[in-house]
Amino acid sequence: MTRIISGAAGGTTLTSVDGNGTRPTTDRVKEALFSSLESYGVVHGAHVLDLYAGSGSLGVESASRGAASVDLVESADRAAAVAQRNADLVNRVLGWTAVRVHRTKVETYLDRVAPELTWDLVLMDPPYTVREDGVVAVLAALETRLAEGAVVVVERSARTPEPAWPAWLERFSDKKYGETRLWFLEPVVESDVESDVDSDGDSAGEASAD
C-alpha cells in the first residue's frame, strides 16, 4: 500500500499497479526525496513533469504539496489507468485539475508537446530495462524544456552506474537509500566572468609600468 505523505491530500491511500511491471518508489524514499526538494524550494507552485510515472505516486505527491500543475507520462495501459485514478482522487481533494495523465511514450510526449511549455521540476524513474544511454537521450530532449532554476531527479537502482549526463546538466547531489539512488541535476548556468583586464589593458592588481 502506498499513500500521499503530506500536503492537502496527506494520508490518502493510492491505488497501486498490480504485477511486476512497475517499480513503485517506497514511502521512505518518497519522504526523503520530497524533504530534499522542499528544502530546495522547488515544489510549491512548480510545474512538474513525472516521466515513466507508473501509478503517479510522485506526481500526485507534488500536487498535494502545492505544485501548480503536474503532467504524468506513462505508456503502459494498466499503469496509466491507475495513474488516472490517483490523479482523479487528488484532483477531487484539491477541487481543481492539477494533475493530468498522458498515456504515451516519454519520447513521443516530449517530441509533440507544445514547444513553449517548460517545467520547474522533472521526476524521472525509468524501468530498469531502460539503459543509461536511453536515460541520457530523454534528458537531452529536456534541454529547452526546463525553467530557470529547474531541478531534475533521476531515480535508478543503486547498482547501476552513474549515467554520462549531458553537458548542459550537472549533478549537484545524489542520495542512496538501500537499493535506490537518487541523482539531483540542474542546468549549467554560465555566469558572466568578470574581466581582469582594465580599460587600459593592464591586469587588475598589477601596477602599470612607469
Description of the structure:
By secondary structure, this protein is α/β, with parallel strands linked by helices. The protein has a single domain (2-14, 28-187), classed as Vaccinia Virus protein VP39 (Rossmann fold, 3-Layer(aba) Sandwich). The chain has five helices and nine strands. It has helices spanning 27-40, 57-64, 77-94, 106-112, 132-140; strands at residues 2-3, 13-14, 47-51, 69-73, 99-102, 119-124, 146-157, 169-177, 180-187. A seven-stranded mixed beta sheet has the order 5-4-3-6-7-9-8, with helices on one face. The protein has a two-stranded antiparallel sheet with strand order 1-2. Helix 2 (57-64) packs parallel to helix 3 (77-94). It is globular. The chain starts with a strand and ends in a 23-residue tail after the last strand. The model is unreliable at 192-200 and 202-210 (pLDDT under 50).
